[in-house]
Design goal:
about 120 residues; mainly alpha; 5 helices; about 50% helix
Length: about 120
């Protein structure tokens, strides 16, 4: 059996020995489990990066000042030592990107994974 999971949900199982981790799918090793190699290191797949990520969205038409205020407060929270330390210990990497940075990131992810789907020939049933 095999699975791909995000590190914050899998880390307790890895640390307890209930799950044997082979590698992380991110481009860099995780600070939470630095002895675990990346897929590139373990399997030689150059440039492999399939990181999971989480973000906040707002309904279309939400005023920009509200979006900016929420982003600023979330970024401030993510940057506090207690939150940052807890997230890093769980294998998560807090960022607090601006809405423009997040949009650019989402667009790059869409482009990358659209190409993967195209090349693989995957179809939705």
């Amino acid at each position: 059996d095999v699975m791909f999971d995000n590190l914050p949900s899998a880390l307790p199982l890895i640390k307890s020995g209930k799950l044997k981790a082979l590698a992380v799918t991110s481009a860099q090793r995780s600070g939470a489990i630095p002895e675990l190699p990346t897929i590139e290191e373990a399997a030689g797949l150059k440039g492999f990066d399939a990181s999971s990520w989480f973000g906040l969205m707002a309904p279309a038409g939400t005023p920009v000042d509200i979006i900016n205020r929420v982003q600023q407060e979330v970024a401030k929270s993510l940057n506090t030592p207690a939150i940052k330390e807890k997230m890093l210990a769980q294998g998560a990497i807090p960022s607090g990107n601006t809405p423009a940075q997040f949009l650019t990131f989402i667009e790059s992810e869409h482009k990358k994974w659209a190409q993967v789907v195209k090349v693989s020939g995957a179809k939705v049933d």
